[in-house]
Specification:
Length: 560
């Protein structure tokens, strides 16, 4: 009798009493039509107070007759799969893992059920919280055993994969189906996304599909909350805390604390907080995959780059009004200049390919311009190399239209042209100083060599179509570079000496239209180039876990 080491007074007796026959005898009776013991076993397995010793005893019996547990016994198997094995003693965990291994090896018909059981535990269990008279069900965020629980889930999934090599073929639909609703708590989404990415490490064949699933869900959040709405909520919280507001500048980077509550790293806007949480996990994964012992692993980074670009092309590029998710590519490209140049080359080829749908070509140009403008890690030489691709393309486009019947301002006809113009203008807004630095004469000669006057003054009139904010800033910096001012006639009031000279009747509307492209006005009847997606324009915040460094708030040029 084992009594040593046991506190008799404070330890309840082990519950090992059970009713009915063995599992093998029960299955034999069932074949003869006697279901009494079969129902009794299901009832005992469903006992919420079942003890570790009982679970181990049952599992050992099931393992001895696993070959008999065919499709006819699925109700019993489903009850066994619901046993509370997670969070139990190590002995229970090991016995349960052994049972799973035996079951999927002998009865592959239960593979999906086993996978669903494991994946269900990729997020914290739901608990009921009563607020007033309403029951609210959400995750148990305070469970300290979650890391251990998740470790055991991945151990189970790896065992199943080892015994059933085709597991990956059945797993992806389940991962998608079990993905929590995006309205769930940030903690629930954080845990599930983290566990999905962990699966991609030991089942690499699923990595691209897993990343696509995660980014698709993030895009759902991204487009559901307009940037202006997020900024308004976060700014309001900051005003409440400080008693004053900060001025927003169109192209300026706003202080990180502008979008964070002063007493926490949690964003006030619920959708922004969920998106920010998922983004942090994704960027942490990217960093960990690409770095080994603190050093960039070139081959691993290249492989991940291919997967991320593929997902970018498939789900990010076609998505309108995405403002934040695309930063995962921005972050990856910051690791090495070669990655950034490869991505820019990819975007250029996408834009330059006439067989691509116009919406994708325009999106590629928008991302290209935003990337060149915003990426501090891009040297001027790379920016100039990209401009040397875009600007000649614009001149060639103008050449092809000058003598044609469609050489007039029309967004539908010339959408790609206007988007490319906007990309060039936007890039110069941010990079003109860098181009002029060091050697002003040489830099100015380069800018003049772009012959921007011809682009601006062509019959397609790009400044009339581009976003007014970009138009204003571009006009401002180019009249610093003396590119537009020499060819632009400003209005001058007649002097007193001209009082006897008959004045030409000047149509007021025409003057206002002349000034439209310098003051950002868009003439009536024309719409701005708004077909491009959200770009890499975002305010920075202090990283949640030392990795992200990117908030889910952006500035007014996010639709470039």
């Amino acid at each position: 009798m084992e009594i040593e080491g046991r506190d008799f007074l404070n330890t309840p007796p082990k519950k090992t009493v059970r009713f009915g026959g063995t599992v093998a005898n029960t299955l034999a009776k069932l074949q003869k039509g006697d279901t009494s013991d079969y129902e009794l076993i299901k009832h005992q397995l469903s006992d919420p107070d079942i003890k570790d010793a009982q679970i181990i005893s049952w599992l050992q019996e099931f393992r001895t007759c696993v070959t008999q547990l065919g499709r006819d016994h699925e109700q019993l198997i489903y009850v066994v799969l619901k046993l509370p094995w997670l969070g139990r003693s190590q002995a229970v965990v090991e016995e349960y893992l052994a049972f799973l291994s035996n079951l999927v090896s002998a009865q592959t018909v239960y593979l999906r059920a086993c996978l669903r059981m494991v994946i269900t535990n990729f997020a914290p269990k739901r608990i009921r919280i009563q607020e007033g008279n309403v029951d609210i069900s959400d995750s148990d965020d305070e469970d300290e055993n979650l890391p251990r629980t998740f470790d055991h889930c991945h151990q189970a999934l790896q065992l199943i994969t080892r015994y059933v090599p085709s597991t990956s073929r059945f797993l992806m639909p389940i991962l998608s189906d079990k993905f929590p609703f995006v309205q769930k708590s940030s903690r629930t989404l954080e845990c599930y996304v983290h566990n999905l990415l962990r699966v991609s490490v030991y089942i690499p064949d699923l990595r691209r599909d897993i990343i696509e699933l995660i980014i698709s869900k993030m895009l759902t959040l991204d487009v559901s909350a307009p940037r202006s709405e997020i900024e308004e909520v976060e700014s309001g919280a900051q005003q409440d805390a400080n008693g004053a507001s900060q001025d927003d500048c169109l192209f300026d980077m706003v202080s990180p604390k502008h979008f964070r509550k002063p007493d926490a790293s949690v964003m006030v806007h619920p959708v922004a907080e969920r998106l920010d949480t998922m983004m942090t996990v994704l960027l942490a994964y990217i960093k960990d995959i690409c770095h080994v012992n603190g050093s960039l692993d070139i081959e691993k980074t290249k492989a991940l780059y291919k997967d991320l670009v593929s997902v970018f092309d498939k789900v990010v590029l076609p998505t309108h009004a995405s403002c934040h998710v695309q930063y995962y590519m921005f972050y990856l490209c910051s690791f090495r200049l070669g990655l950034a140049e490869a991505f820019l080359d990819h975007l250029w080829k996408m834009f330059h390919a006439p067989n691509q749908p116009p919406v994708l070509r325009q999106a590629a140009a928008g991302y290209m311009g935003s990337f060149m403008a915003r990426a501090k890690f891009l040297p001027v030489s790379t920016v100039k190399a990209c401009l040397d691709l875009l600007v000649p393309w614009l001149h060639l486009y103008i050449n092809s239209q000058d003598s044609g019947s469609k050489a007039f301002c029309d967004v539908n006809l010339h959408g790609s042209f206007y988007t490319a113009c906007q990309a060039v203008f936007y890039t110069l807004i941010f990079r003109h100083n860098a181009i002029l630095e060091g050697n002003m004469k040489k830099g100015l000669a380069y800018l003049q060599g772009l012959n921007l006057e011809r682009i601006v003054m062509c019959q397609l009139n790009p400044l009339r179509v581009c976003l007014p904010a970009v138009t204003n800033m571009f006009a401002a910096i180019t009249s610093s570079g003396k590119l537009i001012e020499p060819i632009y006639q400003v209005w001058e009031e007649p002097s007193d000496c001209m009082i006897d000279v008959p004045k030409k009747k000047v149509r007021k509307g025409s003057m206002e239209e002349e000034d439209d492209f310098l003051h950002g006005g868009t003439p009536h009847g024309d719409s701005g180039v708004g077909m491009t997606p959200g770009s890499y324009d975002s305010h920075l915040h202090s990283p949640r876990s030392g990795v992200s460094g990117l908030s889910v708030t952006g500035d007014a040029c996010a639709h470039l």
